[in-house]
Design a protein that fits this description.
single chain, 179 residues, alpha+beta, PH-domain like, 6 helices, 23% strand, elongated
């Protein structure tokens, strides 16, 4: 039993090496639309849960209350009350704000060309030219709807909608080699 498990692990490593040494190329195109940006945000941003995300507005509110009963000018009090409201709104509408900023950008609603090969991942358009080498990739995280490629302390998201099963396997193979 132990021999078969070791044999399977060795086979997996051999398959992984064979896939890595084989020439591979995958190319596709997709549009950077609002749905893509929403998916990208949902899958790549770490959400802070509970009351912890409201710590800063709570501190601003306490400071506003303290300033209200102090001899300082009322303008400072109203400034911190306004800051509290803006901070609460920024927490509540964080995703909408991020998506809106992306939609205002030059790359929005344009076609992106995604190329995956033995050297890495290339993302090209009229406004974006990015190449991620496999040697720069420190981690590949699988999410519900895609992959997070972590390279040089940067997260890049690739949706599963634009990848084939072979492309997913190829990237997963590089995930095994990263670990």
């Amino acid at each position: 039993m132990m021999y078969s498990l070791i044999n399977e692990q060795q086979q997996d490593k051999d398959d992984s090496r064979a896939l890595k040494n084989a020439t591979y190329h995958y190319s596709t195109e997709y549009k950077l639309d609002k749905a893509h940006f929403n998916e990208c945000y949902e899958q790549s941003v770490t959400q802070v849960k509970g009351i912890k995300k409201y710590t800063k507005p709570f501190v601003f509110l306490l400071l506003s209350i303290c300033l209200f009963f102090s001899p300082f000018t009322d303008y400072l009090t109203y400034f911190f009350i306004g800051l509290t409201l803006i901070e609460v709104l920024s927490i509540h509408f964080k995703q909408n704000w991020w998506v809106m900023r992306q939609m205002v950008g030059k790359a929005a609603n344009h076609i992106i060309s995604l190329n995956i090969d033995n050297n890495g991942i290339s993302i090209e358009s009229d406004f974006v030219n990015q190449h991620i080498l496999w040697s720069d990739v420190s981690d590949v995280q699988i999410t519900e709807k895609g992959l997070l490629i972590i390279h040089n302390n940067i997260k890049s998201y690739i949706s599963q909608n634009c990848l084939t099963v072979d492309a997913l396997q190829f990237i997963a193979n590089h995930r095994i080699n990263v670990d």
